């Protein structure tokens, strides 16, 4: 069947389509019901099916003869370590660690926080939770203690699983200090912390609270898989929204497992037994779907890379991994490719390695500029596929479905909707827009399996954030348009969420950090274009009238405050101290105008502005700080 035929089938007969796909995985009880609505009116897939995701990722693969096949290749240039675990070896560790969790009282439906770096034990931890039917929530290592504490309080976990350290290119990050600070701040701190001691840095364990990972695992009884309902939660992953509080995206077992198998085969075009590599981090949705669950449920070998695209040790790092591990299909963030291009503009490093094994390079996580996409195509000589998805969807929403039929690529476009996603472009009034008109990118309900069924303990926010603006549709928060041939182009967020080096961050969270400084009366953070990171935040602060501190000292303090409260990934390097901020007559800060001014783009005087002279003040401030500015039209 062609892409077009498959796609139409998925939209016109979703239940028949997904029943067939559900048959591609193993169930303890096959679902009779494919799609239903729960008591709150939300759609749920496979409600009477029973399965276990860890079983699908490990035991089922071994039953199909993959016991001695590598499941996980850990490649860590930052520590100089390589290690391969077969499916059988990984299962052994997971079953034992599930035994550890069980001994600590973790059972089906209990929540567990995982604050760990890119090491095999993190994957063991995730799968061990899944094996017991416990709900994991991985928190990205680049977040500061406060962000970890916020997630702990929202999730209320029974246990926290941690490693003693993260390893960045040039420094060791002491996770012990971060965890102690987060647990001290959290109101709902769990009573147990299991710590994996890394050789790069060991931490002191707190008696009564902390347990040594290896010691517990050495004596643990392996635990069996616990059958769960398809609609039971597998994990919660926090992502940035428009407020300072992150949203806990819930993923269920059944829809997710079916979507993982389907997307690995049909989007990423990778067969069981082949090697798939996602150069991302397990703390993000791409890590969940494309490092852990997708590849393993598809019976692939997955690569866990603890390093950077450049300077670990050089711009050939990615191509070495591809050649050395015979990667067939890979994922990277456009930022990573831009970093490689910056250090190796002619792509000479790629010639040091035989990357002939590679079939496709997929890019997502942020908008990809055409020059970068074409550069990668030239250097690698394979189709480079820009595709679009979100933490909320858990798997690609718009893509070239390379595993099904590779459509002609159109640079700048993420190609066409993936099977199951009925994507529309709407104006503010909810009317569908004709080709080439930009509007809100929405998905007609029901969303396909694998997408978020709700937010963690916050149905009202789920409804308000995603389902209210355009009734009958899921609002993605992104803007975009489609052309006459049905190719979609994503133009960017329509809200205050920004994307810094492929990391989705909330400007509101950074504003909260700035506002917490005693000298700040008012502030705003906006995302401005950046040649490497796509976007970077720029802060603006108005000080209280009695503040006499040296402005330079204050700026440094404010930058440090964001680093301490949000984390280093926020990459906030500029805070501009202003006498006042441009506002509408109703008091709304004119963020769009501020962004355009900061990007040196043409901007128009907003008709609703309270006092136009404030813009002149802002322009000269931006100019003096080296943040580019231009005149209004
Ligand atoms: N734990 C702790 N700190 C982390 C971290 C982690 N997991 N990840 C990043 N950081 C820190 C970095 O050390 C850096 O700290 P610094 O300000 O002290 O130098 C800061 O956060 C910013 O990091 P990063 O965004 O990685 O910037 P960089 O300048 O070091 O590297 C790139 C630039 C482009 C190489 C890098 O951003 C990159 O590899 N991006 C791709 C990201 C990606 O794959 N995203 C996929 C999401 S789907
Ligand atoms: P995350 O939830 O962290 O995966 O971030 C999702 C957001 O990243 C989307 O809402 C988009 O704003 C952006 N994004 C992801 N993929 C693309 C893409 N291919 N093109 C443009 N923006 C993208």
Automatic annotation (TrEMBL):
Q: Where is the AMP-dependent synthetase/ligase domain?
A: 60-445
Name the Pfam families on file.
Answer: ACAS_N, AMP-binding, AMP-binding_C
The kind of enzyme this is, by top-level EC class, is ligase
Cited SUPFAM superfamilies: Acetyl-CoA synthetase-like
Q: Which PROSITE patterns match?
A: AMP_BINDING
Native organism: Stieleria magnilauensis
EC number(s) on record? 6.2.1.1
Q: Does the keyword Ligase apply?
A: yes
Supply the name of the protein: Acetyl-coenzyme A synthetase
Residue span(s) of domain AMP-binding enzyme C-terminal: 510-588
Please name the GO terms that the record assigns under molecular function.
Answer: acetate-CoA ligase activity
Task: Tell me where in this chain the Acetyl-coenzyme A synthetase N-terminal domain is found.
Answer: 3-56
Task: Tell me which family the UniProt entry assigns to this protein.
Answer: Belongs to the ATP-dependent AMP-binding enzyme family.
- Record key words, sorted: Ligase
